[in-house]
Amino acid sequence: MGNRRSRIRRGGHGSLRALSIVFIVLALLAVGCGRDRSQRVRRTPRTSPSASVEALESPADSPATSASPAASVRPMPKPRATVKPKAKLAAGLKSPAPVPSGGGSGPGTGPAGTPPPAAPTPAPPAAQTRFMHRAVPTNITDNYTVIDHEASNGNPNAIVYATQVWNPGGGAGIYNNKSIGVWYTSGFWAIFNEDGSAMPNGAAFSVDIRIPGASTFVHQAAAANIDGGTTFLDHESVNGNANAVLIVTQNWNPGGSTNGVYNNSAIGVYIRPDGKWAILNEDLTVMPEGASFNVQVHTAGDKVLVHKSSSSNVVGNTTWFESPASGDSDALLFVTQNWNPGGSPDGVYNDKHVGVTIREDGKWAVFNEDESGMAHGAGFNIRIV
């Protein structure tokens, strides 16, 4: 009897040991499975093809949603895309309009496919013609306003200059805080906004139409003449002429070419230490290869002056000046920023789109289109006609 109890107790301990071993094994298996499962879950996002696609298409990396040229102001020059317009436009901007006969593209598209005006009959160009142009619904197509004038119609080799005017004739006016240029489309020259934004109804421009001459020419930026954010000129009218007064307008397609290059920057001129004149981007971005500019060269006089802003002539976003145009609200003025008047080794950047306006007291002034305060020491070349 005593032996049986002893065997039962020993047998009971053996069963308990076996059960304990089973529980331990099961627990270890459960922990191992859980660890494998959690490791698999953690690895999946790192190796999933869909996760890789998501990373490539994220807004931070996608070229289609990168910052537009207008927002690319940098303290030091950096390269910027300078390819044909379709690839140059940032996301959200309007794509260029097709040019008839199968090629090229241009600064804007017509609303709902509106075609550009019919090509005019070419007219013999006058040596120079100046007038005020207003953007109105009948001449606005998307981001440009068509100039319809006998001196430029049908003449792709005309050299057109334009300066924004806030209030022709005085009174209230229209802001257009954009970099502007000119381009030739279907027999007409037009003024356009470089960033592709709509041309505002009522925007006004002083226009000067010229033919190529000794002091009127087109300059094109190329690898041989680009230095950072500048392109230097090599022309007999400016070489060695430190007192030249340059007026410059951007030209998208000189000679009516079907392809052009955008340069969505405020521009100015300056004279380099080596005595060469250059065109510069006020925002310091690298000058795009192929960017083109209409240049006219003058000598300072009563109606051609170099103005410098100072505490005595700055009021808000304007800098006023005395000139023969004072009191003449119908005068036509053209302005180009000048970084270092007189060839000074130091200059003042004014990274703003500028225009001209006539004040209530009859004095003309240069103003910043974005309404920001005018920088003191900024220089401007001004021509009055």
Characterize the structure shown.
The chain is an alpha+beta fold. Helix content is 15%, strand content 29%. It is built from three helices and 23 strands. It has helices at 2-47, 49-56, 85-88; strands spanning 98-99, 103-105, 128-134, 140-141, 144-147, 159-165, 180-185, 188-193, 204-210, 216-220, 226-227, 230-232, 244-251, 267-271, 277-281, 292-299, 304-308, 314-315, 318-321, 333-338, 354-358, 364-368, 379-384. It has a seven-stranded mixed beta sheet, with no helix packed on it. Strand 21 (354-358) and strand 22 form a beta hairpin. The radius of gyration is 34 Å and the shape is globular. The termini are far apart. The model is unreliable at 4-11, 33-104 and 109-117 (pLDDT under 50).
